[in-house]
Amino acid sequence: MTQGARVNALDDIRPAESPRPAFAHASEEELARILDFYEVRWEYEPHVFPILWNLDGAVLESFAPDFYLPDLDLYVELTTLKQSLVRKKNRKLRRLRELYPEVRIKLFYGRDFRALMLKYGKVGLVNELSGTPGQTTPTMQPESVEPNLQASQRPGVDASIGRPVAGKAPGPVVAERPRRRAPASPAPSVVGRPPRAARSRLAARRRTVTDG
Amino acid sequence: MAERVATEVDLLADVGEILLDEETIQARVAELGRQISAAYGGRQLTLVSVLKGSLPFMADLMRHITIPLRIDLMEVSSYGGTATESSGLVRILKDLSSSIEAADVLLVEDIIDTGLTLNYLLRYLRGKNPASLRICTLLDKPARRLVEIPVDYIGFTIPDQFVVGYGLDYGELYRNLRFVGVLRPEVYSS
User: Fold this and answer.
1) What is the mean pLDDT of residues A5-29?
2) Residue A184 at interface with chain B, using a CB cutoff of 8 Å
3) Residue of A7, A37, A146 to mutate when probing chain B, most B C-beta within 10 A
4) Which runs of consecutive H residues, i.e. helices, occur in A26-120?
5) Is the CB of B127 less than 8 angstroms away from the CB of A40?
6) Residue A62 structural domain
7) pLDDT of residue A112
8) Residue B139 reports pLDDT greater than 80
9) Which residues of A touch B87 (CB under 8 A)?
10) Is the pLDDT of residue A177 over 80?
11) What's the number of domains chain A is made of?
12) Neighbouring residues of B64: CB distance < 8 A, sequence distance ≥ 6
C-alpha cells in the first residue's frame, strides 16, 4: 500500500470515545487538535526532565514539556499565561537546554499561539484560551465533531505510538510534577539518573562542599 | 451580521505596511526562475502548486522558467475550515490530475510558517514515487516553524508578521494585491 493510500484511508477514520489526556490548559487541547488534523503524532507530557538536584541527588525541580512529537523528535511547550509564569518557564527552559543539549524543544509563547489561531481563522478562540488559567472544560459539542483520538490511538496506526519512544527519550524521567493535573493516560514512571553532564557538575559541587 | 464586502480602497487601507513591493517580488521571482531552469536542465520538471495562495507566484514563476515543464495543482483543507472540521483530519480537496511517478517535482508554496501543511503534502507526494521532490516557496517565516523541513528555493525570509497579498489571504480577501503587505491588527482583532 502506498503512503498516499494510507493517508486517504485515514480520512475515513472517525473519532471514537477513547479518552484524551486531561490537558492542563485549553490551548494545549487546541494544539493537540491541530496536530491530529495534520496527522502529526504526539504524546502529552510523556517525559519529565529533572533540572535541579540537591546534594544527595534528589530531584528538587523538573520540567515536563507539554508535547513530544516522536516523528520529529521535538518537544513543544506552550506558554500562554501571564508574564511572570513565562519568565519562570524561560528559566526552566534555559536550564533544560544546559543539561540536555541534545533535546530539541520549541517554546510557543502567547503571541505564537495567537498567530496560529489567526492563521486558522480562529481569532475568537484567542481570548478564550490565552491570558487566563484556561482550564479545559468538558466539551459541549457533539462527540462526532471532536477529533478525540490521538494519532497513536487510531486503528491501523503503529501501536507503539503514544508511549515514550525507546532511544528517543534523552533523559531520565520522574514520576510526579506537582503543577499539572495527572493526565488520564499512563503517567511517566521511569526514574533515572541525572545525565552525565549534570552528574559531573553535581560531583564537582560535592567536591567543592567537601573541600570547603 | 451582514458579511463585510471589501472594496479596493478597503483592501489597501487595511494594509499597514508594504513588506515587498511588486517590483521586488518580480525581480526575485525572475531570479528563482533562472536558478530553477539551470538546476533542472535536461530533466522533466513538474511544478505542483498548492492552492489557493500560491497561484500568482506559480503563474509568474513558470513564465520565468525556460525549460520544458508541466504543471499540476493541489488543494488541501486547512485546519479551522468549517467544511472540514467535522472530520478532524486534513483532506485532499483537489488531487493531482496526472501521475508524478519518476518525475522531478517542484512543490510551489506561497508561504511556509509552521510547516504542518507542507509536512503532510510531502508525505503524500513521496508516496507517489517521484524521481525527486523539492520545495520552492515565495515566503519563509522561520520564526513560526514547528516542523523543520529543508526548503530548496526561498524567495524571501520574512519577519513574524501576518501578511497578505500576492495570493495570501485573510478571510479569502487580499489575494489580488500585487504586493505583500502586513495586515493592520485592527482588521483581524475587530
Assistant:
1) 61
2) no
3) A37
4) 26-37, 83-99, 110-119
5) no
6) 19-211
7) 82
8) yes
9) 11, 14, 147
10) no
11) 1
12) B29, B30, B32, B33, B34, B37
